[in-house]
């Protein structure tokens, strides 16, 4: 059936690939990478903004520190001026507070500015100016305390103190401006990063959405393909069932045809044989008449009966008739064998439980005479597996094999025939082993063919038994094989389904 | 018995026909034997009014005929109001059980397999002859 075969191949080819390929994974991986990038950028920008915050707080500290310094110096000057104007000593309290704390404030400022060379230089100047200013203040206070009021006022009037103050203000202003500038630059940079993060996140989100859409589309396609694949599988299954059904029907039809063929051939061959045999018998009857006639002729005219004529009637004629007769008989036996096989193939098999051990023991009984003749012993395994099969067929299979073992013993050696078996999965395997004459390896297949025999042809037989046995085992869903060594013995192995049902029929 | 029984032999193989006839004669049956080599010819003959209405008949029927199956002939004979009384002896090479059953189901009276072994064959035919010589064939009313 080539058409169904093509259809099967086509269906098998149509089966789609169901593996998740790299191509399909790509959007997922890309989306993951984008998210990873966005996360990294966020972390990085977060870290930068933390730096910025630190910087801002530092700047504020610097600025407040510088301002504190300026305030302290101004406090000291204010106290000094008040004292000098009023000579009230209570004004010395702010003076002392300012003068005493200013150096510490300056130290703080210097500590904060460490690392900034420009600021450190300014602070150095500031230190000189502050100590000069504080020195001027201290001088006037000391002069005033000692009662030299005009001296003290003179110092104030020369305006150097005022110049120092202006310079200090300028320097503090410089530091503050510098810090403001720095923070501004940093602020701008951070804003750039912030914007970048914004754009980056936006891009990431768009990309992720895009990839999401792509993934959904690709998944949809996958699902559709899978559905298609399932559909195709279902169709294949349905078709396979159909194909198997068709094959079985074909096989059965072919088998029926062979059976019918064998049957017709055997019958149509038989009809002419009836004639050959029938008229041979008629000829024999005629020959008897001729013999009588010959005797009569011999009595009346003996010179007519020559040696040749006598031989023709008395020897040649019966010899020819004998050959015709024996050949026809043989042909009849062969035709009957074919008929038997074809008939066996038509028989409906009925499975039933068979206690094979009992069956073999019964066959041993019926063969006891032949076994005794060959001094042969047949042993049956105690736990020979039972099986469910067609009883008649099994009887014929074992009967044939055991009979063969009995028939072809090694001359002069007591026969040992053993029937054993075991269960293998859902099959049973039986062995019939003998120590007989054995079979040549080249004949292992031949012996199962119809009308073929092996070895010395010293026993009667048509070469039908084993062909019949193989036919039966195959019909029962099993098979038969032989191993043998010439002069040592043979082992026939039969494998059969442990439970036979008619649906198992192969041929 | 106003008329002697006429034997209608339907047999395509002339050899078989001759052997059957010889052996029937050897059994001492001297009734008229009409031989037909095809089913068509045989049916045409027996369905002629003068044959159909006048005679006790006995049919020797072979199943393997070139023009029609022996069972078809059997069926036609047994379906006919008058011819169905004629005993039918199926004499054939087929010994298939189904075929035998079918023939009996169709109303065949005796089914005989032609044995190839000639002695058996001639014996069977002779026995048939003896059987025929004592068998009562119903008269056509």
Q: How far do the termini of chain B sit from each other? A: 11 Å
* Residue runs with pLDDT of under 50 for 5 or more positions of chain A: 1-19
Give me the count of strands of chain A: 7
Determine the CATH topology of the domain at 349-504 in chain A.
Heat Shock Protein 90
CATH architecture of the domain at 349-504 in chain A: 2-Layer Sandwich
Number of strands of chain B: 5
Structural account:
The complex is a heterodimer of chains A (507) and B (141). Helix content of chain A is 72%, strand content 9%. Chain A has 507 residues and is an alpha+beta fold. Among the domains of chain A are: 253-345; 349-504, Histidine kinase-like ATPase, C-terminal domain (Heat Shock Protein 90, 2-Layer Sandwich). In chain A, helix 3 (92-113) packs antiparallel against helix 4. Chain A is rod-shaped. Residues 1-19 of chain A have low confidence and may be disordered. Chain B contains 6 helices and 5 strands. In chain B, strand 1, helix 1 (14-26) and strand 2 form a beta-alpha-beta unit. Chain B has one domain: Rossmann fold, CATH 3.40.50.2300. Chain B has helices at 14-26, 39-46, 49-53, 70-79, 97-105, 118-134; strands spanning 6-10, 33-36, 57-61, 88-92, 110-113. Chain B is of the alpha/beta class. The A-B interface holds A 263, 267-268, 270-275, 277-282, 328-329, 332, 335, 343 and B 13, 15-16, 19, 22, 64, 93-94, 96, 114-119, 121-122.
């Amino acid at each position: 059936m080539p058409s169904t075969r093509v259809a099967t191949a086509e269906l098998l080819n149509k089966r789609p690939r169901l593996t998740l390929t790299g191509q399909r994974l790509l959007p997922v991986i890309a989306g993951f990478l984008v998210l990873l990038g966005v996360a990294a950028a966020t972390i990085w920008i977060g870290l930068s903004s933390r730096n910025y915050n630190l910087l801002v707080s530092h700047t504020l500290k610097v600025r407040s520190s510088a301002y504190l310094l300026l305030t302290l110096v101004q406090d000291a000057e204010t106290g000094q001026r008040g004292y000098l104007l009023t000579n009230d000593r209570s004004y010395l309290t702010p003076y002392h507070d300012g003068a005493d704390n200013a150096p510490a404030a300056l130290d703080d400022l210097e500590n904060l500015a460490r690392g900034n060379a420009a600021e450190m230089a300014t602070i150095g100047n500031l230190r000189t100016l502050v100590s000069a200013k504080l020195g001027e203040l201290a001088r006037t206070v000391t002069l005033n305390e000692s009662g030299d009021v005009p001296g003290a006022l003179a110092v104030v009037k020369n305006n150097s103190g005022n110049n120092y103050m202006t310079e200090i203000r300028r320097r503090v202003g410089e530091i503050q401006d510098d810090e403001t500038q720095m923070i501004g630059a940093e602020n701008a940079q951070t804003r750039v990063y912030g914007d970048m993060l914004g754009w980056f996140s936006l891009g990431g989100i768009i990309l992720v959405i895009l990839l999401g859409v792509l993934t959904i589309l690709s998944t949809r396609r996958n699902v559709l393909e899978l559905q298609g694949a399932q559909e195709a599988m279902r169709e294949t299954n349905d078709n396979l069932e159909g194909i198997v059904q068709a094959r079985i029907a074909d096989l059965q039809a072919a088998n029926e045809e062979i059976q019918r063929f064998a049957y017709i051939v055997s019958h149509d061959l038989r009809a002419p044989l009836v004639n050959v045999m029938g008229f041979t018998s008629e000829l024999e009857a005629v020959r008897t008449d001729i013999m009588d006639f010959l005797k009569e002729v011999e009595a009346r005219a003996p010179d007519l009966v020559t040696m040749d004529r006598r031989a023709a009637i008395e020897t040649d004629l019966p010899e020819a008739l004998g050959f015709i007769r024996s050949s026809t008989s043989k042909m009849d036996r062969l035709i009957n064998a074919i008929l038997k096989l074809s008939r066996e193939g038509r028989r409906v098999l009925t499975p039933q439980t068979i206690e094979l051990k009992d069956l073999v023991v019964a066959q041993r009984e019926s063969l006891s005479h032949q076994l005794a003749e060959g001094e042969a012993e047949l042993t049956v395994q105690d736990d020979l597996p039972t099986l469910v099969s067609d009883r008649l067929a099994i009887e014929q299979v074992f009967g044939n094999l055991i009979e063969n073992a009995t028939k072809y013993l090694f001359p002069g050696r007591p026969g040992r025939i053993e029937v054993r078996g075991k269960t293998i999965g859902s099959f049973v395997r039986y062995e019939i082993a003998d120590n007989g004459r054995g079979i040549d390896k080249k004949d292992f297949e031949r012996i199962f063919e119809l009308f073929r025999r092996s070895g010395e042809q010293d026993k009667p037989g048509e070469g039908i038994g084993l062909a019949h046995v193989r036919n039966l085992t195959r019909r029962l869903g099993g098979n038969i094989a032989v191993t043998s060594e010439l002069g040592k013995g043979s082992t026939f192995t039969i494998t059969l389904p442990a439970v036979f049902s008619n649906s198992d029929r192969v041929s | 018995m106003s008329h002697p029984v006429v034997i209608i032999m339907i047999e395509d193989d002339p050899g078989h026909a001759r052997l059957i006839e010889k052996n029937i004669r050897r059994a001492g049956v001297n009734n008229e034997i009409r031989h037909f080599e095809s089913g068509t010819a045989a049916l045409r003959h027996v369905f002629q009014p003068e044959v159909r209405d006048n005679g006790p008949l006995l049919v020797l029927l072979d199943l393997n005929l070139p023009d029609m199956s022996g069972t078809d002939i059997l069926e036609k004979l047994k379906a006919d109001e008058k011819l169905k009384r004629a005993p039918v002896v199926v004499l054939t090479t087929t010994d298939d059980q189904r075929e035998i059953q079918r023939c009996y189901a169709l109303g065949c009276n005796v089914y005989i397999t032609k044995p190839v072994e000639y002695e058996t064959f001639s014996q069977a035919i002779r026995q048939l002859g003896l059987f025929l010589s004592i068998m009562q064939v119903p008269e056509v009313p």
